[in-house]
């Protein structure tokens, strides 16, 4: 149980603390039970689920970069049916007081609609608090354009999900666009309760001995501390544009200070991914750090969220650099 | 005795000692809290508590030996991360996540035969130590190959005691028998009542598996390697193709690192 | 003098080796003379120059991030006239056998045209080998949309520069777009001799004690080893799309291995920025490392450039990650 | 004597020794190659040769003392990077870029008066040492303030010898005179033939500059601080507003870190 100071309200969902396990980095929960009680987290986001199971990409699937990594897992997942039958019973027990968000995706706007319908149909059985919509997928029918980077497809995918479910929806935004803000606006306009940001950046590593890309698929998604400033930037921009849109901040968070950067920039809660690979206790340490910060300064997560905007110090983040 | 995965933990421990045992190869020693059980073939993810500039992710290492409740890892510098781990000062606070994965099943057998290539030797001292206690009548054999004498890890007298036979090979003949372990085993693949264990480079394991298959040996436990980001089943990095899909892949860190060779699509 | 193995041919320009000093990170050259002879570099790119001098942004202008930094210098520069009068004489002497690229920018496509005309007018006096066009500037007249992130303004800026000068042009691309490839294509179509990539990523850091952004302008540009995989990715993609378009690879290069990643991904030469702040000898060490690699393997920079494509191992970098 | 910037270099040197001198404060010692000249007030950018996970960029430190050809830096742990630098093991290979910037001009004067706040003490031992040799007749005075006795850096007997007067202040009165240096100097601002030097937190420097101005003292050399990425004039990070623009800003790392106070727009 976290103290009341840590309560994090993200639109319709209240988390006992603002620290969530990010999609694809905490498996189906039980893997972490050896290390700490997953129920002590604010929330838990499942690996992305499709209607059909996916094997994912060939090896190598990961490569280490400077304070980060690239991955090309390829959204390997057991598929909806196996998830509900084989994973959910344990997962529900594991997640306990933490809120579960089911992360979903598809290969076309229609597939998003289909998986959302499945979640809606099984919602009682799963006991999830909401849905996170991962739009970082290529539309296989339209020749691989990434759904999260194309406004029309993005809109169609979110709309389809909204039509199928009354569960709270968080749309997980890709940073691989010219401007994340209009995507957040579009999600809001389509009736999403909030946004999660950011997913991974495009990245590649070359093996200089073998003279070819390290990953089996060539390139992958960059995550880890390296990308922290990028996630904080977009959190700040989205919060400035839509002050009432709840944000789950993600990207490079490894310490309570990192988490606090996102909260101050405008997130209501945050997610931890890559850092938990290196230090499975990262979330626990972050919760403890935030608890200490809040009680020493007699403040709350709710008060801190977006506080960097209240100083009125900057009109608009610089578009000038260099 | 089939090992059941023991509960993994996160340990922050100072590096208690290091010892060079061959070119680029050292023992790392740690003093864990009492009663933390490890099984031969299991592994730990090692990193430094202070974030490292060189190796952001942890690196997997087999539990190399357990003596007087202390943990030993046999580490060979092969790349950036391992080279850096070898330079750490005594007392550096390390993070050890484990023990992870499923180790070697230790069924009763007349002969336990281990084939090791290079740093593939790492899990076998501990395996032999356990087998000695559990099956005192069984013969324990080690066939260990290296590139050359410089890389060859000289076993201590105590370590040699763990084996009834130690046959050594080097590619260049600078120590032991010239040639590969697989060639050197020529007439012994068909021997009955042998439990086979393997660990080493992929080409060596593949050649050994081919020999075993050729001789209708249908069981052998090989410890595999694959890139790992987490080591405990959440990142889906560590895939090994499954001979009999679905699923298409094994997850090496939780289903392995030790796999029956029949399960793997080479 | 570098060995012949290191000769780097980028369209019409031949550099004695493939290691260039990046814009805005090597001042006007003389600052580095204490550390090593700048003339031993392949090339030298000047700080971005405008027609008029610019003071740049208020402090703090830099903040350190995980293996990187964000900056909001704001393109402080002495202006064209002072550059030619006060800086060029020393700079020419300093640069010597290294090739000088003059980096230019403006606040609107018209200003790009104007500064290009000035360079053309003074080209003999300056002795530069070419122009690098920095498009990472907001168009102040059009309310701050970043010229490098807007196809129409980008095209207008490059076209203006091309019309004013016959000097070789390298357009320096921003990674803050959905797809860098069409910008490279546009630069090529407008007659640019090549592209430089990448400039900095948008980033922000929040001071968790003061609860406000660290930089005076709020946000800045992210550079350093953290962004290496992003630059390598876009180099690979641009090379795949336009095999004959010369690329100067930039972003996070600190070692010869990093440089080689860019070369193998498709760059003909590379630039070093942030790494030279930490280690002023970074370029020298990179040149020595490449020299060693090439002679041990009996190869050349020309042969290595793009070699990661020749393995034929991947059809297309993955758009799937996660 | 007006210092001319000496040629800077990049030195890779092992950390030769460290010594704690107050809460969070140490001396770091290095053995540079012979004949590398430094001027008081100049600084170095310090980093580790192996890239650091904690501090990617170098950090600026004044040359704190030069004795027997060895360099000393007085380092106070105030944030992430400095805390980490204080934990480095002896022998760690460090990169020292410098000497950088323009130090203190040392004109003839009857009295040389240094006002230091906290770690602002750093450049003054070396300045005093030089002045002692160059102007043996002049009086050298130090007014040094700290938060409390714990933070107070106790000078050694040899160091005290460098000064004719040492007045110590603490905010809480736990050592020396209670109160600030600026308050403590109340009646001495107007004294004639005093060369003023200052280094310390911005509010203290601002208060001192106001006092000097009030008393029509038109020259004083203060060492300033600003965030630096390079330290040698190429990144344009280290700006200090210019009292008489253009240009609007001084570049502290090359024009400073020591500036005549009249040049700065406070
Ligand atoms: C279950 C398991 C047990 C192991 N036990 C031992 C042991 O006891 N002693 C020992 O010396 N080594 C052992 N290894 C191999 C060791 O983990 C690798 O040598 C090490 O990860 C290489 O890291 P690097 O940074 O030096 O190599 P680099 O090649 O610089 O690493 C680049 C990346 O590749 C990965 N990588 C490279 N080689 C391997 C490899 N062979 N296996 C897995 N990942 C690799 C690294 O994790 C890193 O992400 C084991 C590997 C596994 C999977
Ligand atoms: C010319 C010069 C000489 C100095 N001499 C000394 C000295 O002799 N001894 C000493 O202990 N300190 C000295 N300092 C201050 C010292 O450089 C800072 O305390 C240090 O940079 C803080 O780094 P950090 O990572 O601990 O702080 P953090 O606050 O964690 O650093 C965050 C960032 O802010 C910058 N920063 C923070 N505080 C300062 C500061 N006061 N000055 C410049 N940059 C800062 C850091 O470089 C870093 O980029 C000097 C500073 C300058 C500019
Ligand atoms: C302090 C600083 C100033 C810069 N100024 C400029 C500039 O004036 N013009 C420009 O085109 N790029 C500028 N850049 C971008 C660099 O040239 C380079 O594209 C970028 O930093 C990525 O490379 P790096 O990671 O090696 O630094 C600047 C970068 C930094 C860090
Ligand atoms: C190995 C790996 C697998 C991931 N799988 C998914 C996924 O299935 N669905 C998803 O939405 N995001 C996935 N992500 C992205 C993370 O949830 C997170 O958005 C990203 O890694 C940035 O956060 P981090 O820097 O804390 O890891 C994955 C990330 C990694 C590293
Ligand atoms: S290493 Fe992460 S799942 Fe196996
Ligand atoms: S610190 Fe880079 S210019 Fe001064």
Biggest beta sheet summary of chain A? 8 strands, parallel, barrel
Query: Total helix count of chain A?
Result: 10
Order of helices and strands of chain A: EEEEEEHEHEHEHEEEEEHEHEHHHH
Under the CATH scheme, the architecture of chain A is Alpha-Beta Barrel
Poorly predicted parts of chain B: none
Annotation field: number of helices of chain B: 6
Percentage of residues assigned to helices of chain A? 25-40%
CATH fold field value of the largest domain in chain B? Rossmann fold
Give the averaged pLDDT of chain A, no decimals.
Answer: 94
Task: Give structural attributes.
heterotetramer, A: 322 residues, alpha/beta, TIM Barrel, eight-stranded parallel barrel, four-stranded antiparallel beta sheet, 10 helices, B: 266 residues, Elongation Factor Tu (Ef-tu), domain 3, Rossmann fold, 2 domains, seven-stranded mixed beta sheet, 17% helix, binds flavin-adenine dinucleotide, binds flavin mononucleotide, binds FE2/S2 (inorganic) cluster
